Amino acid sequence: MSTVFIALQANEETRPIIEAIAADNPNAKIDHQPAMVKIDAENSLVVRRETIEELIGRDFDLQELQINLITLSGHVDETDDELTLHWNA
């Protein structure tokens, strides 16, 4: 198995995004550090626009992730609805 991850700045804007990622990836490991939150997952991790919108109560463009994104690891597949990190077998 391979691990993928995404690291976001720790602030009020990312709190619901991190909650959404945790909801959509129940096996992900979330590591809260002083200035960032790193989320690791085995094989793949998905960020769903719809889940984020439910938590923030407004439309959300996945490109808004770029504002608070520190780094990520894995191949990126992105649509208007999902951003998926994975490693090809």
TrEMBL record:
InterPro entries, sorted: MOase_MmoB_DmpM, mOase_MmoB_DmpM_sf
One Pfam family linked to the record: MmoB_DmpM
Coiled coil: none
Keyword tags: Monooxygenase, Oxidoreductase
GO-annotated molecular function: monooxygenase activity
Domain of life, per lineage: Bacteria
UniProt family annotation: Belongs to the TmoD/XamoD family.
Protein's name according to its UniProt entry: Monooxygenase
Naturally occurring in which organism (per UniProt): Nitrogeniibacter mangrovi
